[in-house]
Design goal:
The chain has 243 residues and is α/β, with parallel strands linked by helices. The chain has six helices and eleven strands.
Amino acid sequence: MAGGSKQYYITAGLVDNIYCALDDLTASIAPQCPYPDSYIGETLNTVGFDAVYVQFYNNYCGLTNYDNVNAWDFGTCVNKNVRDIWAKTVSPNPNVKVYIGAPASSTAAGSGYVSASTLATIIQQTQAQYSSFGGVMLWDASQAYANGRYDLAVKAALSSGGGASSTTTTTKTTATTSASASPTTTPGSGSCTGVAAWQSTVTYVGGNEVTYNGHLWTAQWWTYDDVPGDAAGVWVDDGACAA
């Protein structure tokens, strides 16, 4: 259930009846990120959904405003953990999980798309702070695939720290890692023999090694066009190439 007019929504009672009648059914819903949702807020508060895929795009509260405490409402919105508190105190299902819905490419939504490295930071910080966090939903699979396998970047961010959730494409999985704001350096310890130079047009995954500016670097997760040593913190500096 997502977007549209209240007139066409099936009632909360009907959702409950379907949910109770079928075994092993997972009930999910995809509200817009403004809280409360003007179309399906009542249904959200009445039905014990298992998963809520919040669309953090095409709105002021999208991923691009993650650092704006007046906009991002998973865990801030002027220090009120809106989505986390809703999951724990309002939802009929105390075990409901809230997923970050994200565009899988710049063409997948009108606004809200962020780079894989930026989304990785958001994922890791949210998972570390809020137990209601369930993972990530991407819109959509075809866009993620065409965008250098953006879904693999999300999966790497979710699984790199061994969390207990999931990726859904529409992608579910979760993890805890802290993206380093600045690279870690071990001077003079890098063996660069046989390691190719970093290229902006090559996709790298966690564990891949490159050389750049005379140093050996190791990728922490999926990356594309993130320069070793830049603010994204994707690359770990293993030190100057040994002579």
